[in-house]
Amino acid sequence: MKKIGILGGTFNPPHLGHLIIANEVCHALNLDEVWFLPNQEPPHKKKAGGASDEDRLAMLESAIKGNKLFKVEAIELGREGPSYTIDTMKILVDRNPDAEFYFIIGADMVEYLSKWRQIDELLNLVTFVGVQRPGYGLITTYPVQIVDIPAIDISSSMIRERLHQGRTVNYLLSEGVIRQIREKHLYGT
Ligand SMILES: Nc1ncnc2c1ncn2[C@@H]1O[C@H](COP(=O)(O)OP(=O)(O)OP(=O)(O)O)[C@@H](O)[C@H]1O
Ligand SMILES: O=C(O)c1ccc[n+]([C@@H]2O[C@H](COP(=O)([O-])O)[C@@H](O)[C@H]2O)c1
């Protein structure tokens, strides 16, 4: 069985927090690959503007470049409406019968799991892996495998806010992503 990690997200924009948690979980659980799954519309929050779906995809591809274990799975971008994970995982499990899926989530999402669509059915398709995130307690009654990581207080919304204010984002995201943001004048730059 191949062990595949999935990091679903809005990646608006992708930041070093995303890369760090994917890498930490990949090594801790000895995963064969981690697939980054950009959503079309986040089910639980308003989609912030500032970048098109194509821009988010291009930034994500650039962010993971160079890591042979990291891939982008863009299946949700082709689907209208909220990207419910159950719909996506049914397809991915079907397409990859020789894979075992580990769905990676930050502590904010761990606390929100009870509100996920068809969570009990989803638990039959994936193992959830939770990681710390400053400000959240990793508290849940659901079976979530916890991987210890150095806590990282970076979020896409904080980065968007800094960019809008003309403040520095150096070292919070990869250089290639910063270049793309500036070249395409994303997030008010
Ligand atoms: N700094 C972080 N530490 C731990 N988990 C994180 C961190 N940043 C993002 N994640 C996790 O990565 C996944 C995708 O996150 P997402 O792309 O929505 O980024 P975000 O920074 O939470 O965005 P926003 O600030 O716009 O809400 C989620 O499971 C989220 O919990
Ligand atoms: O399926 C759900 O009900 C559901 C509810 C909240 C979040 N998710 C997924 O969790 C991942 C992280 O979400 P987000 O909004 O923080 O990018 C992403 O893949 C979302 O599609 C899924």
Automatic annotation (TrEMBL):
Pathway: Cofactor biosynthesis; NAD(+) biosynthesis; deamido-NAD(+) from nicotinate D-ribonucleotide: step 1/1. Keywords: ATP-binding, NAD, Nucleotide-binding, Nucleotidyltransferase, Pyridine nucleotide biosynthesis, Transferase. InterPro entries: Cyt_trans-like, NadD/NMNAT, Rossmann-like_a/b/a_fold. One of its GO terms (molecular function) is nicotinate-nucleotide adenylyltransferase activity. Its EC number is 2.7.7.18. The keyword NAD applies. GO terms for biological process: NAD+ biosynthetic process. The keyword ATP-binding applies. It catalyses: nicotinate beta-D-ribonucleotide + ATP + H(+) = deamido-NAD(+) + diphosphate. It is an enzyme of class 2 (transferase). Residues 6-162 form the Cytidyltransferase-like domain. Catalyzes the reversible adenylation of nicotinate mononucleotide (NaMN) to nicotinic acid adenine dinucleotide (NaAD). Belongs to the NadD family. This is Probable nicotinate-nucleotide adenylyltransferase. The gene is nadD.
